[in-house]
Design brief:
With about 110 residues, the protein is mainly α. It contains six helices and two strands, in the order αααβαβαα. α4 links the parallel β1 and β2.
Length: about 110
Amino acid sequence: MPKKLLKFQNLLFRFMPKSMFQQMGFRKADFLLLCETMMELDFNNSLHKISCPTLLLYGEKDTANKNASIELAELLKNVELKTIIGAGHEVNIESPQELAEILHAFYERMS
């Protein structure tokens, strides 16, 4: 996880009204706590243990997560890295059809 981006994102969340979090089904305090704990996560020493086929996706315009995705792909053994062209961070909203096609093809190869 890009820690600088998480810190900036958490700062922005602190200024958002409680109602924004309620729309997502969270209490603001709980959401902020969750975000803070995400900065503490570090799975780097365990990633080499993952041996199952893994599909890793990122949006072409999601520059913050692009580098993290590429680095993660280098740490995994059996990974397929895909870029969703034209999409940003929310590929499920911005390119749902392409996402569905990629997921379907991946699941077909796994069965």
